[in-house]
Design a protein that fits this description.
Length: about 170
């Protein structure tokens, strides 16, 4: 692929911060007690850090890393577990924290393996969703923004491991 760089800003830092505050409040309202967040590395690390800082009360965290066998900017559907959780999910109220749901294949795989570990509840929060790209009907209870089918970077999302550090989300172009 040719040299792609962030072009148009799709979501400003202020827009993201406001929406993340709302999502944190929504999740807290649904789970006022102990809450266990499972973030998907690497893309979700920025979203997670803003989410938890807007969430008062008792919150524990864990991380897992997966890799989709990507072909360019599309997913093949095969998912490989690179890092598993440190602690059990049994009996816990668990929310998966992910950067973006695109085809839905990655999240479907994650939800299936995490549900098998007997959490009390399992829900999913995604900052972004591209509904037009969905190939499997995956349930995501908390969605920050629904966007069109454009490849985006920033706020944790990368292109070839770059641009995760941008405080805003931009569409890449040449
Ligand atoms: P899915 O399995 O197709 O839903 O793919 C989800 C994963 O693909 C996300 O966790 C991202 O890592 C990656 N992804 C999908 N769309 C984008 C994008 O626009 N920018 C950056 N990464 C993306
Ligand atoms: Mg990801």
């Amino acid at each position: 692929m040719t040299d792609l760089r962030p072009a148009d800003v799709l979501l400003t830092a202020d827009q993201i911060q406001n929406r993340v505050r709302e999502l944190a409040a929504d999740i807290r309202r649904d789970f006022p007690g102990e809450l266990h967040l499972v973030a998907v590395l690497k893309g979700a690390f920025v979203f997670l850090s803003d989410l938890v800082r807007n969430m008062p009360g008792r919150v524990s965290l864990d991380f897992m890393a997966v890799s989709s066998y990507a072909k360019g900017t599309t997913t093949s559907g095969e998912v490989r577990l690179l890092k598993d959780l440190d602690t059990t999910l049994e009996g816990k109220d668990v929310v998966i924290v992910e950067d973006i749901v695109d085809t839905g294949l990655t999240l479907t795989y994650l939800q299936d393996i995490l549900r098998a570990r007997a959490p009390k509840t399992l829900r999913t929060a995604c900052l972004l969703s591209k509904p037009s790209r969905r190939v499997v009907d995956v349930k995501v209870e908390y969605i920050g923004f629904s966007i069109e089918d454009r490849f985006v970077v920033g706020y944790g999302l990368d292109y070839a491991e770059q641009y995760r550090n941008l405080p805003y989300i931009a569409v890449v172009g040449t």
